[in-house]
Design a protein that fits this description.
Low-confidence stretches: 1-17
Mean pLDDT: 85
Structural class: alpha+beta
CATH topology of the largest domain: Major capsid protein gp5 fold
Strand order of the largest sheet: 5-14-10-6-9-8-7
Distance between the termini: 67 Å
Shape: globular
Strand content: 15-25%
CATH class of the largest domain: Alpha Beta
Number of helices: 7
Order of helices and strands: HHEEEEHHHEHEHEEEEEEEE
Length: 317
């Protein structure tokens, strides 16, 4: 019996590890960019995940030393602690015994097909939470929720409340400069996630600074447009369905938003042991097969100052 238990645990862990890789490769398009490309960070050991942030400012003056003087030591720069809650996300499957037994017209296994669709739904739900999650501590009666990228950006935020501002090339360069002013050059925002209408607006910029590149460098299936900013970095422009086109109170985000970020500063942290996406059978409560894909994870933003959030732009070209 002990051997059987050990064997089952080993197999489950192997399947869990491979499932995360499979999810990354499912629907690798712009709509699932963050789930496909964000790195997996350290495991979350508690439902309130904590990490340290160290931000080194540029020197604005230099105190030179007199010959032979003793060295004076400044107060050490203190790291700031940041936190985020883990959230449980499920994608359940329930299929009747009859349907599971009957061959589909396509010849595929009905349960297997439903599980494949559920896996795509799980990825979509996780992607939405990564962007739009509104932090909630949770209780016995209410689910905890992670804070998404939009909610975590609090320093470089601008809003055009009239909703009549056109998204111009100057404003895009202003966003890149805001990021450049806030962090070191290697951490300046290089991904711009926008609603599709803003991507079309960028494509219509009357310059030769926008172009397309192949998708080989990222987990994408199609070419993507990039913009060579005045400040320096080349910005990849992603048309994303989960970027709000209307105001979002929970994520403190205006409508028709443009989000500039550096994806090397953002990671996913899964709850230790059982948090990575995996399949769990559920108890039979009727004449059907029950189960769910489930995960518990959070988003880690190592420096929100590198990101810029700007919204309230025109919803038309």
């Amino acid at each position: 019996m002990a051997f059987k238990s050990t064997y089952n645990t080993t197999v489950t862990n192997e399947m869990r590890e491979s499932l995360l890789d499979i999810i990354r490769d499912v629907s690798p398009n712009e709509d699932n960019y963050f789930m496909s490309n964000l790195a997996k960070g350290h495991n979350a050991t508690q439902t309130l995940h904590e990490w340290n942030i160290y931000h080194e400012g540029r020197a604005t003056a230099v105190a030179v030393s007199v010959q032979g003087a003793d060295t004076t030591y400044p107060e050490p720069q203190i790291e700031v602690r940041s936190t985020n809650y883990t959230a449980i996300v499920e994608s359940p499957v329930a299929i009747s015994r009859t349907k599971a037994s009957i061959a589909m017209i396509t010849g595929e296994d009905a349960l297997g097909k439903d599980k494949e669709r559920a896996l795509r739904r799980l990825k979509s739900k996780m992607e939405y939470a990564i962007i739009n999650g509104a932090a909630a501590v949770g209780s016995s009666a209410a689910a905890a929720q992670l804070c998404g990228i939009l909610g975590s950006v609090t320093t470089n935020v601008s809003n055009y409340p009239s909703g009549l501002q056109s998204f111009t090339e100057t404003l895009l360069n202003d966003m890149v400069q805001q990021s450049w002013n806030s962090v070191g050059g290697s951490y300046v925002g290089n991904i711009l996630a926008v609603p599709v209408v803003l991507k079309r607006r960028i494509a219509a910029f009357g310059t030769n600074l926008t172009r397309t590149i192949t998708a080989e460098s990222k987990r994408l299936t199609q070419e993507v447009r990039v913009y060579d900013s005045d400040v320096g970095p080349t910005v990849m422009v992603i048309a994303h369905k989960d970027i709000p086109t209307v105001a979002s109170t929970g994520a403190n985000t205006p409508g028709n938003t443009a989000l500039l970020l550096n994806d090397s500063l953002i990671e996913l942290a899964f709850l230790v042991k059982s948090g990575e996406p995996h399949w769990e059978e559920r108890a039979k409560t009727g004449d059907r097969e029950n189960g769910t894909y489930i995960t518990e994870f959070t988003m880690v933003n190592y420096d929100e100052k590198a990101a810029v959030k700007s919204g309230g732009f025109l919803t038309t070209l």
